[in-house]
Design a protein that fits this description.
Elements: H1 2-31, E1 38-44, H2 48-59, H3 64-75, E2 81-98, E3 101-110, E4 115-125
Antiparallel strand pairs: 1-2, 2-3, 3-4
Helix pairs in contact: 2-3
């Protein structure tokens, strides 16, 4: 009988240590929650300026394909492209005002390449109409 008590005490120590290690790993995972990868899709551009140009073309009424092609042709390289669902870590988010339009931009770091790409939307216009019927 005494041998059973020793092994049971030893197994209780093992359980206590494993529980403590589990709590440490859980706390570490919770603190790293700000950099969790998520699945994203849609049109992304290599640079913030390229994304603003892309959104400007879209605001003028171009489709996403035509806007991406126009930006790529304008800068003479492939920058804006559609992405199928891919894993990326959300980065900085900012609001930019340029040429009377307000843009909301966000960077994403695509995995596993660790390359930053930009996405965004046009929030509105700051242009004033001259006549009430133009509204």
């Amino acid at each position: 009988m005494p041998d059973g008590g020793v092994s049971r005490a030893f197994s209780l120590k093992k359980i206590a240590v494993l529980t403590a290690l589990g709590a440490v790993f859980a706390a570490h995972g919770a603190s790293a929650g700000g950099e969790q990868a998520e699945r994203v899709r849609g049109y992304f551009c290599n640079a913030e300026a390229d994304q603003i140009a892309f959104l400007n073309f879209k605001a003028r009424g171009e489709t996403e394909i035509m806007a991406a092609n126009a930006v790529n042709k304008q800068i003479a390289k492939m920058s804006c492209a559609p992405y199928l669902p891919a894993m990326a870590i959300p980065g900085k988010e900012q609001t930019v005002m340029k040429d009377g339009l307000v843009y909301k931009l966000q960077s994403f770091t695509f995995l596993p390449e660790k390359v930053e790409r930009w996405s965004g939307t046009v929030l509105g216009s700051l242009q004033v109409t001259t006549k009430d019927q133009d509204i």
